[in-house]
Design a protein that fits this description.
- By secondary structure, this protein is an alpha/beta fold.
- The chain has a single domain, classed as CBS-domain.
- It is built from 8 helices and 8 strands; from the N terminus they run ββαββαααββααββαα.
- A hairpin with a 5-residue loop joins β3 and β4.
- The chain starts with about 40 loop residues before the first strand and ends with a helix.
């Protein structure tokens, strides 16, 4: 029966070979009136970048730089989201506070020490996001004073699944606004000023 199926020719794997990863093609330019889905990094289309609570903050920061993101989902051994950690968490005062309080070295500061735990996260329902416009997301981030917002799916049993993330940096890029790294309030003030022109 297998005589109708000749084997495929194998070739050696080259040293520089990488691996395929899912990609999401976000539009280059959006307006405040476009669908909010146009600025959502959707984890059904892009692999979420994760870290573990026991990873060092320096390791988490290297992962952010390597993947070009400023937020990592923190997951446990059951792949459940237990929090998030951002570049601002790592580069801000939190590590220094932990070092001072515990008398430890920087390399001993762990993700769990400075992450925002799950019970302190506020999230957006994907059903609301699907009806929203980019302007609604910008206003939501502005009101919260945060650089990121997480969107979730809720199944018929009420279980939540993190579906994606909004980022002020990504939204500003897609709106065609160049913003310097800085405080969220300044970021939104600049977005609003540039869009008003």
């Amino acid at each position: 029966m297998l005589r109708d199926y000749p084997g495929l020719t194998a070739v050696p794997l080259r040293q520089e070979a990488g691996y395929a990863q899912p990609t999401q093609a976000l539009p280059d330019i959006v307006t405040l009136e476009d669908s909010a889905l146009q600025v959502l990094t959707d984890f059904q289309r892009v692999t979420a970048i994760i870290t573990l609570p026991g990873d060092s903050v320096d390791e988490a920061h290297r992962r952010m730089i390597q993947r070009g993101v400023r937020l990592l989902l923190v997951i446990d051994q059951d792949r459940k989201v237990v929090g998030v950690i951002t570049a601002n968490d790592i580069l801000g005062e939190k590590p220094l506070q932990v070092i001072t309080q515990r008398g430890i070295r920087r390399e001993d500061v762990l993700v769990r020490d400075i992450m925002t735990p799950q019970d302190r996260l506020e999230v957006l329902k994907i059903t609301d996001v699907q009806r929203a416009k980019v302007g609604h997301v910008v206003a939501t981030l502005h009101q919260s004073g945060r650089q990121h917002a997480i969107a979730i799916d809720i199944d018929s049993a009420g279980r939540q699944t993190v579906r994606g993330v909004f980022s002020t940096t990504q939204i500003a890029r897609q709106l065609g606004v160049t913003i310097p790294t800085g405080e969220t309030a300044r970021t939104f003030a600049e977005i609003e000023a540039l869009l008003a022109r």
